[in-house]
Automatic annotation (TrEMBL):
Name used for this protein in its record: CobW/HypB/UreG nucleotide-binding domain-containing protein
Gene3D superfamilies the record matches: P-loop containing nucleotide triphosphate hydrolases
Lineage: Bacteria, Pseudomonadati, Bacteroidota, Chitinophagia, Chitinophagales
Top-level taxon of the source organism: Bacteria
InterPro entries on file: CobW/HypB/UreG_nucleotide-bd, P-loop_NTPase, Zinc-reg_GTPase_activator
N-terminal signal peptide: none
Amino acid sequence: MKIHLLSGFLGSGKTTAIQYACYNLLQQDIKVGVITNDQGIKLVDGSFFESLGIPNKQVINGCFCCNYNDLDASIQSLIDANNPDVIFAESVGSCTDIVATVSKPLQHIRKDVQVTISTFADVRLLQMLLAGNSNVFDEAVSYIYHKQLEEAGIIVMNKIDLISTTELDKIKELMQEKYSTKTLLYLSATDADGIQQWLQTLNTFSPAQHSALQIDYEIYGAGEAKLAWLDEELTIYNSTDNAVQSAVALASTIYQKIQQQHFAIGHLKFLLNDNIKLSYTATTQPDNQYIITNQSTATLLINARVQVTPEALDRLVKAAIKDIEIATNSHITISSISAFQPGYPRPTYRMAD
Ligand SMILES: Nc1nc2c(ncn2[C@@H]2O[C@H](COP(=O)(O)OP(=O)(O)OP(=O)(O)O)[C@@H](O)[C@H]2O)c(=O)[nH]1
Ligand SMILES: [Mg+2]
């Protein structure tokens, strides 16, 4: 069995890559399983794979490294239920050091499993950070971003459809200079050829190329603590059957309020009616390909990961809810809410070289 670990910053395209890779492999009758991971409990990614009918498990309430035993139990549970040939495991976008804390322990404990790690990077965000545009995220957050790239065997520069060929050539040059020892891929996860290229690389990649990071956990912990997580589940009631429109407007209003206040967005994602994902990142917005249906109720799961305090994020979302209730003549009830900062990273195992 193969386990492909995906690392990479919030919103870089890990879930999208797994989704299309699963379609590709299922077409070839290769059995797949997915493990998603996040700091919270009510999570868009896990529910999204559930809605796609792809066998999946979630490691919740903290990253793989700090919940190694839950990761292992999820692997076992997928094996018992479905015996997959390939498992994709997506780590939290603010997590790093996974060679030492996840990949090496996995290879040590499950000797029959082949493990790879790919780090995903949104090519436009990378472009900004490589250009020294350091005001996108706090220095400690950028530290995590660069550590994710540093520990990768394979770096996937994703979303190349968003830049010109001239810009792409420039990035290739810079990445080659900085990361010449790594396997560098340039693709779009939404493109079948791009996914095929990534899967081919995974098939031929030797895990021996991964080596553990030198990392300062004080800066890593400080970087995670700069980010706020807000998970909220709500139901929208609208007597003129405009509940779905109101939900979409709420997502957009939250995004606009974050933009107005100049808070850096890691990933602002929503799951509408348990199956439609709306996602805003530092560089992308929803593609609006969903179909608006006339309904008197709609559910919305909000997962916001933003560089701000949890209290300010909570206030901002509450204000957006109020605005939408008034603007669309809707009533919104909140069934669960949790706003917090990720805790200091304390890995279950850490195996350096
Ligand atoms: N244009 C474009 N957008 C993409 C591509 N891949 C992903 N996206 C978009 O980027 C956004 C974030 O993608 P996800 O796959 O959810 O990112 P992620 O890395 O799983 O995010 P987290 O789980 O929050 O860390 C979504 O709106 C995707 O549709 C791509 O190749 N091109
Ligand atoms: Mg994801």
